[in-house]
Amino acid sequence: MTTEEARQYFKDCGLSYADIKEPDFWLLVAMVSKELSEFVFSSHAYEDKGNMTINKKTLKFTFTKKGLKNAFIEVDGPYFKGREAISFNRDGFIGFAGWAGGNNADPFIKGFVKWCDMIKEGLK
């Protein structure tokens, strides 16, 4: 699945920022972390399993009574720190690892899609 398809999936699930509460955000962090632990990061100089991790110290998020306002999840890797994993921007745009080439955005997209399914089910 591409990043554009993941954004559309969020919409197709009938989700909006108003549906996302703080516990839901932490669930997303956990689900992406699980995907990262099983993922083989590919780069020119490094291939290893489970070597990207969410930096919980740099998580930034704002919630109001109406739900999520914005959030930024960053990831650290073998030769970088603080790169975008998933961002929920104030204008409604959801970003996925804009820095990643090849299949390196896969764990973020897979975790996000699984999370969408769980949030959607919880709204029924």
What is the helix fraction of residues, given as a range?
25-40%
Oligomer: single chain
The termini sit apart by: 25 Å
Number of domains: 1
- Helix and strand pattern: HHEEEEEEEH
Biggest beta sheet attributes: 5 strands, antiparallel
Radius of gyration: 14 Å
Secondary structure tally, helices: 3
What would your notes on this structure say?
The protein has one domain (3-123). Helices cover 36% and strands 26% of the residues. It has three helices and seven strands. Strands 3, 4, 5, 6 and 7 form a five-stranded antiparallel beta sheet that branches. A two-stranded antiparallel ribbon has the order 1-2. A hairpin with a 2-residue loop joins strand 4 and strand 5 (67-76). The two termini are 25 Å apart.
Short description:
This protein is α+β, with helices and mostly antiparallel strands.
Highlighted features:
124 residues; alpha+beta; five-stranded antiparallel beta sheet; two-stranded antiparallel sheet; 7 strands; 36% helix; 26% strand; globular
Question: Mind sketching the topology for me?
Answer:
Blueprint: H1 3-12, H2 22-38, E1 40-42, E2 47-49, E3 53-54, E4 60-64, E5 67-76, E6 83-88, E7 94-96, H3 106-123
Helix pairs in contact: 1-3, 2-3
